[in-house]
Write a structure and sequence with these properties.
This protein is mostly helical. 53% of the residues lie in helices and 5% in strands. It is globular and about 45 Å long.
Amino acid sequence: MSARKTKIIGSYLSPYVRKVLVCLDIKGIAYEIDPIVPFYGNDEFARISPVRRIPVLVDDAVTLADSSVICEYLDERYPEPPLFPQGAQRRARARWLEEFADTRMGEVFIWHLFNQLVIRRFVWGETPDVQVLKRAREEEIPQVLAYLEGELAPDGFLFGAISVADIALAAFFRNAAFAGYPIDAQRWPKTAAFVTRALDHPSFVKLRPFEELLLRTPIANHRAALKDAGAPVSAETFGTVIPRRGLLTI
């Protein structure tokens, strides 16, 4: 293991942070977390994450600011248990599904749903764009679910043991639930069963108390509340008290 404990910068409520934390737990890598909402990152955060996105990983070897790069790095540095399946085709498919999650599902579940109902309200004091929400609920999310229904098996995970693809896909459904969007199990039974199966994995379950705590805690009190709840909160923070918008928009 690394000489210096791995640090993750980013909130438990982020699906990208969630993906990395689950991967760390599966590999048994100890970490500490600076649980900032990215809009509250200071100038040093902007230096190490130039597009002001989370998570950021800092250890004795590297500083990385992309969840997919972080997971691949973790799998190469700590090979057991593996996060990727064996074989070129299966590994490529795992990478594609992770990419689909991070891009298309991120656009729809985070920016068009969770952002509208949670981030705009609690960070910026804004009301949702009802047209964006309507399109997400009625068109975009059903398109995503229809695609996944054709990709997922009726039981088990995509490649046997849980992989980075399973983790990446499932992570976004926590935010969908936070925003009040349930999967219609009659319409998408394989997807609904997969999400339940994945989110019941012990490495996801461990995060639930901290996620649920943050949902009912003002952002300014996140660090203190998490410390009191026993989360591995870092001694220092890249956070600040005044939010500023990120560089990238959807």
